[in-house]
Amino acid sequence: MMKRILVILGLVAISFQVIAAPHYVSSAIANNFVRVLLENPDSLKYFLDESESKLIDRLGISYKGITNKFFIGNLPDQEQIANISDSYKLREIGDGYTELTIIAKNAARKNTYYFLGDKVISPAACYARGWKQFSSKHFVFHISNPAMFHPYCVSRLENFLDRMMDTLQYSNDQKLRLANEKIHYYLCANSAEIEKITGFNTLGIYLLSHDFLVSIYPCHFHELAHLLINYKLHENDLFTHPFLQEGFAVAMGGRGGRQPDIMNRVGAYMQRVGLLAPEILFNREDFLQTDASMSYPMAGLYNSFLISRLPIYDYIRVYKNCSTPNPVYTCPCLDSLYRNLDGFAGYSQAYLQNNTVQLFVPDPPMLSRVKPNSVRLNKQTNMVMFAVQDTLYFGGNSDYSSYESFQYKQLTGKRKYNGEKYAVIANTDEISVYNLWSCELVAKYSKAFSTDSCSVFTHNGNSFFTVNANVFDKEDYSLFQYSKK
Fold it and tell me: What is the DSSP letter of 417?
């Protein structure tokens, strides 16, 4: 009797193992997928997992002439198809996930696709499946390393989104849909994770196929701006002239962890000294061949100017008119606008005159009583006076002691991070103000980009300057001493 029971239990265990074994894509389906990919890509949608179809359609963003949004940027072109070998490579990743790679004969490029069972899924569904996930009003966050995300960033992203909805004049229906369907934000620990999810070796990207934000920055406003204008447009041509596309994102969201104000000041400096004129960048090829450290700030400044001068619907009309099904080199709309819209030189000059960071020389009484690393807010001017010895960290609390600021790690690897919110670094040539929670450079002065090349005044090791209080969150004003003048 006991022997029979053991045999039955053994059979049950074996049956359970068979049932629980993961199912990987079959060779027949893989072969069929590759055949359809090369011969009839419009039918690839039938391979998609149902969840993927819902994801790519959730915000209603589409592109004219694109029938396979899921595969944007990941379909072989005709030259590749001619060079693709008959074979492909399948790699079982685990838990039913399979990677399928097609390599051209010249190995110049490979196309990679992912399956869960027999259905095609996104790389994000594969590689981020074990990440921490939580939601806010408008976002679903997928966090690779929870220690690298401060909860403060949720409110910072939501506040930015609220301002953008007002700027772009979203309808109530658009606002409601965005709150219901949400923006998926993937915070990666490094660029290698981004490349796994997107196929691009970059620090951040707006993924057109799924309307995902994928970044190492916890507040990547630049990429979010790309998504938000596409959502406003609802349907657009796939290729927007980069002077408008990147210029808008810089004007609204800055670039690479630097606030728009900082980027625009670089553009204003180039305009002032004649280093680069905006009309040079109206040719797509010239824009792409110009170093991004120059083209992006100039495009950002000019788009800021356009948005300040045009009703938003006129700006959006210009944006759409500069979008085409295929990349084009020139945009007549931009040339016409430049010839007929005066005032850019004055707009640029005003940027240089109203600096967020201002230099000053204190009077002798102040010099005699100032303490090292002191901070004082002038309520009348709304400027914060700093006397900084090299580097000052301040703000924050111990509520999130496990938080690791990658911005802080970039600044110094020596001092232990204690959760501070701000870092101010100053010397005779530069002043930098960082928000360590959102990993942003929020204010900057550089002698090299100053039209009068003024050095920061120093005395007894202290650098003296003022910063517009709007750079800091209002709830942090309590950190400053106050003065009436």
Answer: P
Location of structure tokens 């915070």: 187
- Tokens coding 26: 């079959």
> DSSP label at 401?
T
Bridge partners of residue 426, in order along the sequence: 431
pLDDT digits (tens, 9 = 90+) for 342-365: 899 999 998 888 889 999 999 888
DSSP letter for each residue of 123-170: HHHHHTTTSEEEE-SSEEEEESSGGG--THHHHHHHHHHHHHHHHTT-
Q: What does the pLDDT read at residue 217?
A: 97
Least confident window among 55-64, 97-106, 216-225, 352-361: 97-106
Give strand pairing partners of 254. none
Query: Measured in whole angstroms, how far is the alpha carbon of residue 485 from the centre of its chain?
Result: 39
- Mean pLDDT in residue range 75-80: 72
Q: Do 62 and 155 meet the contact criterion of CB atoms below 8 Å apart?
A: no
pLDDT digits 0-9 by tens, 35-45: 999 889 989 99
Residues 6+ apart with CB under 8 A from 234: 60, 61, 62
Cβ atoms within 10 Å of 269's Cβ, excluding its own: 21
Report the C-alpha gap between 335 and 332 in whole angstroms: 5
Give the Cβ contact number of residue 451 at 10 Å.
Answer: 12
The partner residues of 357 in beta bridges, in order of sequence, read 467
Determine the Cα–Cα distance for residues 48 and 70; give it in Å rounded to an integer: 9
- Say if CB 468 and CB 356 are below 8 A apart: yes
Question: What is d(CA 110, CA 75) in angstroms, rounded to the nearest whole number?
Answer: 10
- 3-class DSSP state of 72: coil
pLDDT of residue 78: 67
What is the Cα 223 distance to its own chain's centre? 3
- Please, what is the Cα angle at 264 between 257 and 424, to 5 degrees? 50
User: How many CB atoms within 10 Å of residue 222?
Assistant: 28
End-to-end CA distance of the chain: 96
| pLDDT per residue as tens digits for the range 445-469 | 999 988 888 999 999 899 999 999 9
